[in-house]
Design brief:
six-stranded parallel beta sheet, alpha/beta, single chain
C-alpha cells in the first residue's frame, strides 16, 4: 500500500512517522515550502519527498491532507480524481462551500473520506461514549467543555507564531476552526447540535488576523443545553468535559488523564485513571485509516465532518448578528 502525506508541518510529520511505524513501506510526501520538504527528507529518509503534488499522489491508495484548511478541498479533489481514498485533517475545510460537492464526487467513485478528529480515538473519551450508551448517568441535561492553549507558547514554541497559518484568517487559522475538536466530540457524544448562540472574536494581544476566542452556547436535538469554550491565549493548556445527567455526573480531565463519575446513590466519585500517551490516539487513527482504505467504514466520515462545519458556520453567523442561529 502506498500513502501520500500532503503538508509537512507538525501534524504531517507526525503522520509520516506513525505510518512508517505501522509498516507502510511506500510513503510519499509533499509540501509547497521547499524548506519543509528539505527538512522532511532529512528527518524521514524512508519516505520519498516529492517535488510536486502530482508526483506525491502518483500510485497512492490513500492521501492524508495536512495543509492549511483553505487548500483542503482543492487537494482532496485532485486526489479523488485519481481514485485515492482521503484522510483530511480537521477542520474539513475553511468554509463549507464546495465540501458537499467533493463528498458527492467521492461517494459516486466509492472513495472513502475520513475526517481526522483524533480525540475520537482517545481511550478516556471512548469510555465516556460507552458510559453514555449504557445510560450510566441517565439523560444528560447540561454539558460543557473547554479546549484551550496558548498559541505562541504551546503551538509554536521558540518560533514566531505570526509566520504560520494559524495567525492568518485567510488561510483558515484561528480558534473556531482549529479547536473544532470540541464541537466534534460534543456532537459525537451527545448528538446533533440544532441551534447556536456564540461569541467569536479576537480579544487578546496575539498579533493575528483570525479569532482567538469562541464561546458557543448550543442546543442539542436531545434537549441538552451545552457550552463549548475555546481559546488560543490560555497559559494553562487544558481540555475537559463535564456532563450533568439526571442520575450522575461524568467528567474528563486531559491533564489528569482520567474519567471521574459521580454516583449520587453512593454519594461518591468513581475515578478511572489512564496511562495512554498523546501519540497513542494518532497511531489508532492511522491504523483506522489503513482499515478505511481496505474497506472499513470511517468512524468520522466526510459527511460527519461537514456537520461540524455547519455548526462552525452557524457560530460565525450567530456571533456576527448576535442572535440564535439554526444549524
Amino acid at each position: 500500500m502506498k500513502l501520500a502525506i500532503v503538508g509537512l508541518g507538525s501534524i504531517g510529520r507526525r503522520h509520516l512517522g506513525n505510518f512508517q511505524a505501522l509498516g507502510v513501506e511506500a510513503l510519499s510526501a509533499y509540501d509547497t515550502d521547499p524548506s519543509q520538504r528539505e527538512a522532511a527528507a532529512t528527518l524521514f529518509p524512508f519516505g520519498m519527498v516529492a517535488p510536486t503534488l502530482e508526483a506525491a499522489l502518483e500510485g497512492a491508495e490513500g492521501v492524508v491532507v495536512c495543509t492549511p484548511p483553505d487548500s483542503h478541498v482543492a487537494i482532496a479533489r485532485m486526489a479523488a480524481e485519481r481514485g485515492v481514498h482521503l484522510m483530511i485533517e480537521k477542520p474539513l475545510a475553511q468554509t463549507a462551500e464546495g465540501v458537499d460537492e467533493l463528498l458527492r464526487f467521492c461517494d459516486d467513485k466509492q472513495l472513502r473520506v475520513l475526517t481526522a478528529y483524533n480525540w475520537r480515538y482517545w481511550p478516556p473519551m471512548l469510555l465516556v461514549e460507552r458510559m453514555l450508551k449504557e445510560g450510566r448517568i441517565g439523560p444528560v441535561r447540561a454539558a460543557r467543555t473547554e479546549y484551550a492553549y496558548r498559541l505562541a507558547f504551546h503551538r509554536y514554541p521558540g518560533k514566531d507564531y505570526r509566520q504560520f497559518y494559524m495567525a492568518d484568517a485567510k488561510q483558515g487559522g484561528g480558534c473556531l476552526l482549529d479547536e473544532s475538536h470540541a464541537i466534534d466530540y460534543m456532537r459525537w457524544l451527545l448528538g446533533e447540535i440544532t441551534e447556536v448562540s456564540a461569541v467569536v472574536d479576537r480579544v487578546s494581544d496575539l498579533e493575528i488576523t483570525s479569532d482567538d476566542i469562541a464561546d458557543l452556547t448550543v442546543r442539542f436535538a436531545s434537549g441538552t443545553i451545552g457550552n463549548i469554550h475555546m481559546n488560543l491565549f490560555a497559559w494553562n493548556i487544558h481540555s475537559h468535559v463535564e456532563l450533568l445527567g439526571e442520575n450522575g455526573v461524568i467528567q474528563w480531565h486531559r491533564s489528569k488523564n482520567e474519567i471521574r463519575v459521580f454516583d449520587p446513590k453512593a454519594g461518591r466519585w468513581e475515578v478511572y485513571p489512564f496511562t495512554c500517551q498523546l501519540n497513542d490516539m494518532y497511531m489508532d487513527e492511522a491504523k483506522h485509516f489503513l482499515d478505511v482504505i481496505r474497506g472499513a467504514a470511517p468512524v468520522c466520515d466526510g459527511w460527519d465532518g461537514l456537520k461540524t462545519m455547519r455548526v462552525i458556520e452557524a457560530a460565525r453567523l450567530a456571533a456576527a448578528e448576535r442572535r440564535w442561529v439554526r444549524v
